[in-house]
Backbone:
């Protein structure tokens, strides 16, 4: 963003509460806390108070995390308010001001969904301000408020019994209509194959192997960017050396500030063999040659030996998409959407059901089933799965067996693709006969003379 009005602060001590037993103030140590200011450099008190409010809601701050995302969204409003030359207090803003702000966002050719997202976060910020200054008339639903909101259609649907009933979703008349296209739609198999073909054009075989493993990790596990970069060598070998008929790969679920949870994803064994090949032949040698302490993470920069960042993954996907002529560019979350959708589709086929309303009822009413689905995806709330409900109709009984069955199907598809690629690498001289035989032991194929 041009002329940023925020920066990340580390080692920040934030007051939490006063302990009566210890007779002293208790502080929280915070990392990557966004600090917001006006374009002239003067701190914005209300925006920073809002950041602290969000921080105490246990939001992620990893590399900025959700907190940085929200700071970025409301920074547009801070610039707009500054341009008013403080002609009015924040608590005196009107519906006209808010409407002008939303319309101003269109000048930079933002999509409708982007404008709505900025607008919704700004609404939440203004609701915070109304509470901060005890000015309930500032913003709300109806004509009695200075800024007049509407309840969104989602808020009028039948409430989830497991969800906080005080939760509402607001919109505003100035918001652009929702675009029909869905930027978060699952990536197609055609585009995945285009990305693979583009990656394999790289003359550096080490980079090819690493990048294909990254792509496989996204597709097979539905990992978020921040979860992919924290995959460890130990995780891979623990799964590979297990006695499970279907290996389970441990992923860190990085969505909370003060806790890291884990989930186990069934993966094809050949996927793990491929990553172990990268670790053994490429990654470990780079770490050794750079003479640096081994940090234990799988995916590294081949220049520095350090763990790659989530932004680097985004850059890779953008570059591969550009070179493969995929527009708009592929992004990591599209793989996650494909992973969830494909899992649900496999379960539907397994149970031969076709009533999404029944699935929704079962999913909400049965706690065991809810946890089974959530632990695969790493979502924090059951509502996050609602976009996939029309694809997912299953029975409660046998859900685990169905998941394993769907994984077996995925294994066969992955093995076929890997068999083709490993033989191509052998033909091109990128791997020797010994490496090929080691890899193909899992296929029970006897290798003859090289072609």
Residues:
């Amino acid at each position: 963003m041009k002329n940023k009005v925020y920066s990340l602060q580390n080692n920040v001590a934030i007051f939490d509460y006063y302990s009566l037993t210890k007779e002293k103030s208790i502080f929280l140590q915070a990392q990557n806390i966004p600090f917001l200011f006006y374009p002239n450099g003067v701190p914005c008190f209300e925006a920073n108070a809002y950041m602290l409010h969000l921080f105490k809601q246990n939001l992620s701050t990893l590399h900025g995390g959700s907190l940085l995302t929200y700071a970025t969204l409301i920074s547009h409003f801070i610039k707009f308010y500054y341009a008013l030359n403080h002609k009015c207090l924040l608590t005196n803003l009107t519906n006209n001001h808010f409407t002008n702000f939303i319309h101003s966002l269109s000048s930079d050719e933002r999509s409708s969904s982007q404008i709505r997202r900025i607008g919704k976060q700004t609404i939440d910020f203004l609701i915070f301000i109304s509470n901060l200054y005890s000015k309930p008339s500032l913003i709300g639903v109806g004509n009695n408020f200075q800024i007049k909101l509407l309840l969104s259609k989602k808020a009028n649907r039948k409430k989830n019994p497991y969800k906080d009933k005080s939760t509402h979703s607001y919109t505003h008349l100035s918001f652009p209509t929702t675009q029909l296209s869905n930027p978060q739609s699952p990536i197609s198999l055609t585009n995945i194959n285009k990305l693979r073909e583009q990656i394999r054009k790289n003359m550096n075989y080490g980079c090819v192997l690493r990048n294909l493993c990254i792509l496989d990790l996204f597709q097979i596990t539905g990992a978020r960017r921040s979860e992919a970069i924290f995959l460890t060598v130990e995780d891979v070998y623990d799964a590979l050396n297990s006695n499970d008929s279907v290996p389970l790969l441990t992923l860190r679920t990085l969505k909370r500030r003060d806790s890291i949870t884990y989930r186990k994803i069934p993966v094809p064994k050949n996927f793990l063999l491929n990553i172990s090949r990268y670790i053994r032949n490429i990654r470990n040698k780079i770490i050794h040659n750079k003479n640096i302490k081994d940090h234990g993470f799988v995916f590294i920069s081949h220049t520095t030996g350090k763990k790659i960042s989530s932004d680097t993954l985004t850059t890779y996907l953008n570059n591969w998409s550009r070179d493969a002529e995929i527009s708009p560019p592929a992004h990591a979350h599209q793989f996650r959407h494909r992973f969830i959708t494909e899992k649900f589709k496999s379960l539907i086929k397994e149970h031969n059901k076709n009533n999404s309303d029944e699935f929704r009822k079962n999913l909400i009413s049965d706690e065991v089933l809810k946890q089974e689905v959530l632990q695969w995806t790493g979502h924090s709330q059951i509502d996050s799965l609602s976009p996939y409900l029309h694809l997912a109709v299953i029975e409660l009984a046998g859900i685990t067996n169905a998941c394993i069955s769907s994984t077996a199907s995925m294994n066969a598809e992955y093995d076929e693709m890997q068999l083709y690629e490993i033989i191509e690498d052998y033909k091109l001289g990128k791997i020797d006969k010994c490496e090929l035989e080691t890899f193909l032991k899992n296929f029970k194929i006897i290798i003859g003379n090289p072609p």
About this structure: Residues 32 and 62 are 7 Å apart (CA to CA).
